[in-house]
Structure to design on (334 residues):
């Protein structure tokens, strides 16, 4: 029987190769993976663990926080603050950055996360996940928000963990995308797919169609053409999926291709989009690019956007390369 390769072994075996992952980064990724195991276990307990329902508070975006949003946020902080690898953390669920408390050893890395993405799906037992992004801090000054405001292209690691029928951790350190499935009996993430590749073409799109009347013309044109099917300009029938958990929608695209869009729309015209750049769009965009896909805000590559705010929002078009190029072209050369 083929040997099981754990996340630890996978990272250790890279040591000594040209693709070596810095030991501090390796430790950090293992601790994040451990946090995901704890979150997975809390998610699995559901009503039996008293983790469902709202927490009675709001985050910086004015969104109602669910109990599991807070529990997952706390789990990530508690696991990562003492490891000696980080200078600070930032999260969708915290207004400000969290510098590593002075009593712990300080490191050079910065960790950002959406602790539980797809919050509206928690109570209805639909797949949800954790998204994370790792950057490196330069200089020795005390960590500040400005240290986090780096373009996505500067990320040194990114990943997500999807809590669905299986718990799957998907990771990149800039050498392609790898997937690990949680073996609950062993308590270990086991390598289940190396060098994930997203097909460049697809017949499947993901968008919240209920917002159609609020979209901009290029997005409307793209979706109209998909809906026209075989008889339309695309000459093929398209399928649609929308899980309302970015993690689950992106995971499907990783597995079989597709295009995911959360575009700007007229409901809140002053905001560039719904999703957050730093801890949702950037890590997902890097993963998708590392798997051969594309990721833009409709006009430019997401990873090139210079952030100005921690909780900055962005429009997102990502997935199969040829479809993302087409949607981007509809915006830039209408
Ligand atoms: P969250 O981080 O508060 O869960 O919000 C992000 C989620 C994404 O996972 C998903 O793609 C989107 O919001 C769904 O939004 P909508 O309910 O408007 O379809
Ligand atoms: Mg989210």
């Amino acid at each position: 029987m083929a040997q099981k390769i754990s996340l630890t072994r996978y990272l250790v075996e890279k040591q000594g190769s040209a693709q070596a992952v810095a030991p501090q980064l390796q430790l950090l990724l293992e601790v994040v993976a451990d946090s995901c195991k704890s979150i997975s276990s809390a998610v699995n307990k559901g009503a039996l663990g008293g983790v469902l329902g709202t927490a009675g508070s709001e985050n910086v975006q004015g969104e109602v926080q669910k109990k599991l949003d807070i529990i997952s946020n706390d789990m990530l902080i508690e696991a990562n603050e003492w490891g000696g690898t980080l200078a600070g953390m930032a999260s969708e669920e915290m207004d400000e950055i969290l510098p590593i408390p002075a009593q712990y050893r300080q490191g050079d890395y910065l960790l950002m996360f959406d602790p539980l993405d797809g919050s509206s799906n928690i109570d209805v037992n639909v797949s949800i996940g954790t998204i994370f992004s790792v950057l490196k801090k330069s200089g020795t000054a005390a960590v500040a928000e400005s240290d986090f405001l780096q373009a996505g292209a500067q990320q040194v690691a990114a990943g997500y963990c999807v809590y669905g029928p299986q718990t799957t951790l998907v990771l990149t350190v800039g050498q392609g995308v790898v997937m690990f499935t949680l073996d609950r009996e062993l308590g270990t993430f086991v390598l289940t797919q190396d060098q994930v590749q997203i097909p460049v073409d697809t017949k499947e799109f993901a968008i919240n169609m209920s917002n159609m009347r609020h979209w901009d013309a290029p997005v409307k044109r793209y979706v109209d053409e998909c809906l026209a099917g075989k008889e339309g300009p695309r000459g093929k029938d398209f399928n649609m999926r929308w899980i309302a958990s970015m993690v689950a929608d992106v995971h499907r695209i990783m597995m079989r291709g597709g295009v995911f869009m959360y575009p700007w729309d007229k409901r809140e015209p002053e905001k560039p989009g719904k999703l957050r750049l730093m801890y949702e769009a950037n890590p997902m965009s890097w993963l998708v690019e590392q798997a051969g896909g594309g990721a833009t805000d409709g006009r430019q590559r997401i990873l090139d956007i210079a952030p100005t705010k921690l909780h900055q929002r962005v429009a997102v078009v990502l997935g199969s390369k040829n479809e993302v190029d087409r949607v981007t072209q509809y915006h830039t050369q209408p």
Notes: The domain at 7-193 is CATH 3.30.540.10 (Fructose-1,6-Bisphosphatase; Chain A, domain 1).
